[in-house]
Design a protein that fits this description.
InterPro entries: Preprotein_translocase_YajC. By secondary structure, the chain is α+β, with helices and mostly antiparallel strands. The protein is built from 1 helix and 7 strands; from the N terminus they run H-E-E-E-E-E-E-E. The strands form 2 sheets. Strands 4-3-2-1-5 form a 5-stranded antiparallel beta sheet, with no helix packed on it. A two-stranded antiparallel sheet has the order 6-7. 4% of the residues are buried.
Length: 147
């Protein structure tokens, strides 16, 4: 028995490896074909898509039967481009509610803070923030210059 594996073990291992590679390749191809068919069903005129290059657009024309024919995608109003059908990465699902300008307005309850010209210190004195501190380089920061 030991002599059998010594003589034929490597051949058996190679055959098992080839069978596994063939099986996994077929399985991967079937999965890709299923995904491609599903994408073709979703890719209809009017659907928003993401292209391989990162561009978003809307399908104008697409022939799922002939994948060699280019698809026409509108990337801006009046701007149509022809792309290979495999350049369509995926169909983008629309969001539940489109954002409007009102979504970006500040809330009415948010307090509006005006800039402050002077700051209280720990000892209760007020220090003004004027730019005349630079006139005297020996003066302490945050104090008013002496007249």
């Amino acid at each position: 028995m030991n002599e059998f594996f010594t003589n034929y073990g490597l051949i058996i291992l190679l055959v098992v490896l080839l069978i596994f590679m063939f099986w996994s390749s077929r399985r991967r191809m079937a999965k890709q074909k299923l995904e491609q068919e599903q994408r073709a069903r979703q890719t209809v005129p009017g659907a928003e898509v993401l292209l391989q290059g990162g561009l978003y657009g809307t399908i104008v024309s697409y022939d799922p039967e002939n994948l060699d024919q280019p698809a026409v995608v509108e990337i801006a109003p009046g701007v149509d481009i022809k792309v290979h059908s495999q350049a369509i990465l995926r169909v983008v699902e629309p969001s539940d509610a489109p954002l409007t300008e009102d979504d970006f307005e500040p809330e009415a309850s948010a307090p509006v803070v005006a800039p402050v010209d002077d700051f209280p210190t720990d000892d209760g004195a007020r220090v003004t923030d004027d730019k005349s501190d630079a006139a005297d380089p020996d003066a302490e920061p945050g104090t008013k210059p002496q007249a």
